[in-house]
Amino acid sequence: MPNLEHPAYPAADLLHLESLVPCRESQVSMLLSIFGERQQFSFPSIFIYGHTSSGKTYVMQTLLTTLQLPHVFVNCVEYFTSRLLLEEILIQLQSSSSDTEQTCPVHCDTLNDFVRLFKQAVASRELQDQTLYIVLDRAEQLREMEANILPAFLRLQELTDRNVTVVLLSEIVWELFRPNVGCFEPFTMYFPDYSIGHLQKILSQNHPPEYSADFYSAYINILLGVFYMVCRDLKELRHLAALNFAKYCEPVVRGEANERDTRKLWKNIEPHLKKAMQTVYLREISSSQWERLQHDGGEPGQLKGLSAHTHVELPYYSKFLLIAAYLASYNPVRTDKRFFLKHHGKIRKTNFMKKHEKTSNHLLGPKPFPLDRLLAILYSIVDSRVAPTANIFSQITSLVTLQLLSMVGQNDQLDGPRYKCTVSLDFIRAIAR
User: Fold this and answer.
1) Sheet containing 45-49: which strands, arranged edge to edge?
2) The domain spanning residue 38 has which CATH number?
3) Which of 421, 431, 310, 416 is nearest to 361 (CA)?
4) Distances (CA, A) of 94 to 97, 99, 125
5) 23 and 154, same structural domain?
6) Residue 350 belongs to a domain
7) Residue 344 CB-density burial (10 A; 0-12 exposed, 13-18 middle, 19+ buried)
8) 295, 326: one domain
9) Structural domain of 416
10) Backbone dihedral region of 397: left (phi > 0), alpha (psi from -120 to 50 degrees) or beta?
11) pLDDT in tens, the chain (433 residues)
């Protein structure tokens, strides 16, 4: 029995739509209930939110295209100013009109011009008896535009006196959109993340024709068992599934195992997936490099330019600041004179190491240090003379922004800010080289 039912649309189209949007039947059913029939006025604005790769854009595009509903689809990242956005909506309306072969250039400087030109475009398409849907993907970019753009889209149906519904797609909640002066409240709808069962069902649909569905489903089950805790992104998982399937099939191709011998298949693919956790998911190498690595049977570190951590491009003094911060985090304060002064005097050999201090500082983690200690170590490890200019302080702020340093406490401390170094020893070694 089909899950999608609506008297205004053919059953065959709904059945086809259901096959295209697996695990999103409840959301599509809710949208069809809100849309109603073609000639009915729908809700003026709908706000759909959810995490990345939860199917928001795909479901809206598939729904509107499959049911052949008149719509305009615009990505707000691509059209990042109000003028570009409004003109693109009018251009798409004009290009889909049946009585105009070529699209004329559209100039729309203000919202009043948009409302006037929008009415003309809707009249030319003869859409007075149908609902027109304007879908704005990545709608959080609207907050960076003029203050009247978002409220105008939320009540565009009222401004134009036309049967139009604006659908906003975003990854953030509506509370971060709502203007301080108030506006028309849209109908909000949440797209939850795919569960592991949903991902298993969706990814298993892409099985190659030369292998059985059960064999590919067992492979997807192994893949999700490794990657699900660290990656819920459907696009990433689909990419990983396509990239590593050839390695999974190697024992079957060589005749060493059959499709039901899951133990041998797992032992063959397990070390390979562990390497994939460090490479492909982080996009540190291209797919062609990864396939070459599969064929050669080498380690990920053997490819030049593999690790993004060892090739972070930083300004000249930022590298020294990061090294100085690492030394300040992991070396006790009492050793600074011994390490960084040429004439530090005679060192008295006393047993001042306490019992708890004999533990490696790398096991205890980084310790906070003040700004003046960081600068003092910097001046001692840099050969040339460094003046404490605004450039140096701005680079410290940049390292905090990049999360290579973390600030401990508040900015309004009387004794100055304190920092911690958050990078590993391998990272510092790569920077020091």
Assistant:
1) 71-75, 132-137, 164-170, 45-49, 187-190
2) 3.40.50.300
3) 421
4) 5, 9, 8
5) yes
6) no
7) exposed
8) no
9) 316-341+363-432
10) alpha
11) 467 888 889 999 999 999 999 999 999 999 999 999 998 999 999 999 999 889 999 999 999 999 999 999 999 999 999 999 999 999 999 887 655 455 567 889 899 999 999 999 888 877 767 899 999 999 999 999 999 999 999 999 999 999 999 999 999 999 999 887 778 999 999 999 999 999 999 999 988 888 999 999 999 999 998 888 878 888 889 988 988 898 899 898 888 888 888 888 888 888 888 777 765 545 556 667 766 766 666 554 444 444 444 456 788 888 888 998 888 888 888 887 777 776 656 556 555 455 445 556 666 778 888 888 888 888 888 877 777 778 888 888 888 888 888 888 765 556 678 888 888 888 888 888 7
Q: Based on the fold, state whether residues 62 and 76 are members of the same structural domain.
A: yes
Tell me the C-alpha distance between 337 and 246, whole Å: 58
Q: Are 135 and 123 in contact (CB under 8 A)?
A: no
Residue 156 sits in the same domain as residue 31: yes
| Residue type at 399 in one-letter notation | L
Q: Distance between CA atoms of 2 and 32, rounded to whole angstroms?
A: 14
